[in-house]
């Protein structure tokens, strides 16, 4: 069984440790300490993590996030490396792969690409295929509400329709880059956009991408 999620988790922990608690990220308003706290709360505090989607839980999420960001940074790194508690659903490999492969990949890139000297990361074809499989399943959810039609295309021609409409913007890139784009990191994604100039500008300005 593949262990992409475990690999990406350890890469994220190592990177967070290397850059320190106050480095920038692609997540607006977050330093690395905040991102580390988010990762931990998401898998260790389901009572609060729902605040990202449920308005009534937002105050609790804010309170719990503050508690974790106040912890020693070294403790946060260790909690990420250790992973979820014993009886968490995330302990199941199938759940971990499904829920965390993309999560940890994107957040690792959130840290990497916010640094001034970042360089593209070489990903093996098997991992690219795994990311594409997940992107295909999530594309329409991630593209809901965008102001244009949106098609995501791999260099080999495989496509996923993220949003039906006109005019259409076609975004071409490796699955890893398309994921970054679809998660709202448009400016940091190494992709090519094809479509009317006005539609491309509207898409870049949109805050509707991502889930």
Automatic annotation (TrEMBL):
InterPro entries: CHP03085 (IPR017519), Maleyloyr_isom (IPR017517). It comes from the Bacteria. This is TIGR03085 family protein.
């Amino acid at each position: 069984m593949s262990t992409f999620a475990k690999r990406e988790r350890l890469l994220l922990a190592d990177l967070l440790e290397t850059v320190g608690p106050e480095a920038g990220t692609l997540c607006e308003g977050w330093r690395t300490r905040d991102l580390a706290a988010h990762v931990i709360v998401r898998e260790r505090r389901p009572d609060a993590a729902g605040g990202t989607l449920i308005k009534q839980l937002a105050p609790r999420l804010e309170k719990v996030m503050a508690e974790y960001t106040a912890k020693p940074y070294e403790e946060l790194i260790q909690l990420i490396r250790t992973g979820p508690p014993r009886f968490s659903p995330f302990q199941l490999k199938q759940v971990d792969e499904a829920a965390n492969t993309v999560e940890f990949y994107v957040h690792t890139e959130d840290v990497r690409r916010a640094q001034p000297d970042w360089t593209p990361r070489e990903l093996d074809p098997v991992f690219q295929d795994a990311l594409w499989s997940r992107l295909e399943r999530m594309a329409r959810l991630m593209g809901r509400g965008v102001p244009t039609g949106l098609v995501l295309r791999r260099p080999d021609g495989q496509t996923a329709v993220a949003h039906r409409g006109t005019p259409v913007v076609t975004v071409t890139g490796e699955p890893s880059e398309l994921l970054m784009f679809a998660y709202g990191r448009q400016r940091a994604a190494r992709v090519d956009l094809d479509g009317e100039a006005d539609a491309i500008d509207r898409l870049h300005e949109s805050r509707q991408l991502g889930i």
